[in-house]
Amino acid sequence: MSVFDKIEVEVSVVIGRTHMPVRHLLKMGRGAVIDLDAKHQDPVWIYANQELIARGEIVLVGDRIGVTVTERVRRAE
């Protein structure tokens, strides 16, 4: 087993954002739709351990959704 096999990374993809009161969020049930400020062609933000690392595009792979990395984001040092 390699040292890298033991490292865990949480990857998150943000496809859009919205603002809503908590009371609306609590009223939502299964199948509810949340309107976001993004269009289908807009880039998504890819985070690793809550740090922005790249931008990408949503792709459909059969019946699954994936993300293609289009741009790496360099850290300011």
TrEMBL record:
Gene Ontology MF term list: cytoskeletal motor activity
GO cellular component: bacterial-type flagellum basal body; plasma membrane
Biological process, per Gene Ontology: bacterial-type flagellum-dependent cell motility; chemotaxis
Ranges for domain Flagellar motor switch protein FliN-like C-terminal: 5-73
Location, primary (coarse class): membrane
Entry keyword set: Cell membrane, Chemotaxis, Flagellar rotation, Membrane
Source organism superkingdom: Bacteria
Transmembrane helix listed as a keyword: no
Localization in the cell: Cell membrane
Membrane topology field: Peripheral membrane protein
Family: Belongs to the FliN/MopA/SpaO family.
Protein name (database record): Flagellar motor switch protein FliN
Organism: Hankyongella ginsenosidimutans
